Each structure stands twice: as C-alpha cells, then as structure tokens.
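Ligand: L-homoserine. Inputs:
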Amino acid sequence: MSSESVLAFAPASVGNVGIGFDILGHTVKAVGDRVRARRTAEKGIRIASITGSAAALPLEPEKNTAGMALVSMASALSLPFGIEIEIEKGIPLGSGLGGSAASAVAAVVAGNALLDAPLSKLELLKFAMHGEAVASGSVHVDNIAPSLFGGLVLTVGIDHPRTKQIPVPPSIRCVLAHPHMFLSTREARRVLRKTVDLSDFVWQTANLAGFLSACYTNDLAMLRDAFEDVIIEPQRATLIPGFKAVKQAAMGNGALGCSISGAGPTVFAWAEEPYAEGVRVAMVEAFAEHDLATDSWVSAIDTEGARILEQ
Ligand code: HSE
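Predicted complex:
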C-alpha cells in the first residue's frame, strides 16, 4: 500500500574524491536535503515551497533539480496522479557538497514511496540524473550515486549505469571546510580543458586504481601516495582563494589527501580519526588567513544513503 505523504532525506556528498572525476563520490554525514512529497489528483509536478539554506531556487519544476527528477519519473512511468513537493535545503547552494544531487535524490526517493509498485534504487538513479543535469548543464553521477546509495560509490556508465560501494578503511574521517563564497558548477566545468596529456592520463589512471585498491586492502600508505588529482585540481585551484595554503595546512597536519570537493569551493581532506580535528582547525585557519569564513565538519563515511524519514 503506497503512502499519501512522505518525507525523504538525502545526504550531501563529496564528488570526484580528487582522483575520480565525475565517477567517484562519497556521502557526508553532517548535512543533507529533505523533500516532502504528496499525491495530488491533478497530474503533473508542483513545487509548493523551498525553505532552508538555499530558498531562492526556481519553483518551476523543469528548472529545479528536484522538480525535474520527478518530471522525468512521472513521464517515464505515466503516473496517473500528480506529485506536490516541499523542499527543505540543508546544503548551501554552490558549495560543492552535492546540493543539487541531494535534492534530486530526496525527491525521487520520496516520489518512489508514493508509487503502488516502488522501484529499486538503481532504477531511481536515472531520474535523479536528469534532475542534476538542470543545475550543472551535464549529466554526471558522482554526487547522485553516493547520495542515493550511501558510502563511497563508483559509477560506471551513463546510459546503463552500474554502481559499486567501495569499502572505506574504518579509521578514515572526512574533513570539510566550506568557505563562504559561491562557485558555480557550470563555471567550474567551463574552465576545464577538453584534452589531457598522455602522461597525465597514465598518472591519474594509476592513482585511481591505486586509491581503489588501497581502500579494498586498508593500505593507508598506498592511499596517501595515490590521493593526487593531477588533471582537474590544478585547473580549478585558482577559483578558490587560498586553496594551496588550505591543502598545505591539511597535509602538514597529518591528512592522507586533500582536494576540491566536487566543483568546489568546499575543500575536503581524508585523515585518520586521531588527526581529523587538527586537520579541520588548520584548514579553517588557512581559509581565515585569506579572509574567508568557513563552516567545517568532521564526518564519518558511513554507508547510509537516502532514506524515508516519515511515511
Ligand atoms: N564531478 C562534478 C564536477 C561534480 O567536478 O564538476 C560537481 O557537480
């Protein structure tokens, strides 16, 4: 029996995780978006309200990530009813914490619970991808997949995506420093060159393979050596004031790796639990020296993804 009204939560995420541009991401326990969905007799998708940290987003469903994800779902399934949603943003806009993905994911998870025959999470992935494309201008899954499934998630394929939850060494914490500035994902993608040097391709491929194998084998020395994005980070670093100093501060205080979260401006680091708080403080101080106030978190990388909170 389906519900008439449900509330879903989807966590924030770190896209790319440095070395896996557009294909690797992990959840952040600290923050997320919520979407309440109700069945309506009138067909179509309606956004009743947007509240929270990014309330100035469009209410037209086709221009909103959550709305577009549900438009895509309703059209594919020829739903005989409509859906009205209320979006509660917990993730700051343009932060690099996967806010557009989380809203799209929370919307499809809530919408799914209204169906007479709910779909699997893998089937929901594509609808959420259509929503995410509204915000960034391209289809990529590195925030959608972890927000939906939870944990560190690798996605292979776009038309027929396959996802794999990668084990994270249990001592690892993710440290996040979100400077109070807006960085558009479209702009951060626009600056990227369309071609890659062969030597950089080899280096990056080795790092991605090394990173993933280190996760499976709990090999922190390999993880540290492989945790270096040689292609994307150097092209985006100048978009974030103080990035180089923040990274140096993290690495100098025991981080295993540090890079840009998604398209930025949030900077993330992985550190073993005893070092994580020191890394957080050092990153915040480095941003402050560049006149940027920050929100910061130390987050476990748990495997809990989007879920229904009330039904
Ligand atoms: N992989 C994406 C990027 C994440 O880095 O542009 C932002 O949506």
